[in-house]
Amino acid sequence: MSRIKPRRRHRAAGYAVLLLGLLVVGVAYAAITGAGGAASAATPSGPSPADIAQGRAIFANTCSSCHGMNAQGTGAGPSLVGVGAAAVDFQMSTGRMPGKDFDAEMPRKPVTFTTEQIHQVAAYIASLGGGPAIPSPAQVSTAGADLGLGQQIFITNCAQCHNFAGAGGALTYGKSAPPLTHSTPTQIYEAMLTGPEAMPVFSDTTVTPAQKRAIIAYITSVRAEPRRVQPGPGRAGDRGPGGVPRRDRRPGLRRDLDYDEEAT
Questions:
Q1: Structure pTM?
Q2: Does the CA dihedral 68-192-161-218 come out positive or negative?
Q3: What is the mean pLDDT of residues 218-247?
């Protein structure tokens, strides 16, 4: 009997360890699958098939005459396969597309479509071949952005074309760098991502997302502070009665840098 009792206790202990191991595995599996399900539920879904289908319909009616029924491009317009949703959103949200005239470049115009319709067309184009996505609000937020860094990068890489204050300027071959006075943070970010017209592409590996936010912070800060025109001696023929310069008789006159004749 003394030999049998230790064996029984040993077998019971083995079963207990086995059951405990199975219990631990089951709890761990439930935790992993539960976390995975929660993560899936928290992850925002992409555009729905209905949005893509609606975007295709809008594209077929308004864009296919130049870009082809499948966005493959024609002699009147380039292929859009692979340009990404960001490029479509920039072009349509600034009114540059749909284009009306075949100029050296497409100027900014009143927007034709709603934001929802623009995003639907962008989703359709993205479904054809990927490309840069529309940046999120967090990506274009200037909260905590390094304003000094943005100024340094903008002056080094952008001011030659867009002017130090983002007022724009003339380029060669009848083109011009547009003013940034009406560009939203999202449009500025998208322009850097996609390089519209004569602008080079600044991918996130060339100019990081943090640096892009800094540039946006600088642009928005400069255009939010228009310069006050200082009273000057005036020009010949520009004086009213008593020799007072005409423009000096309007106290508090403010002009944006875009139109300040004395800005250098």
A1: 0.66
A2: positive
A3: 57
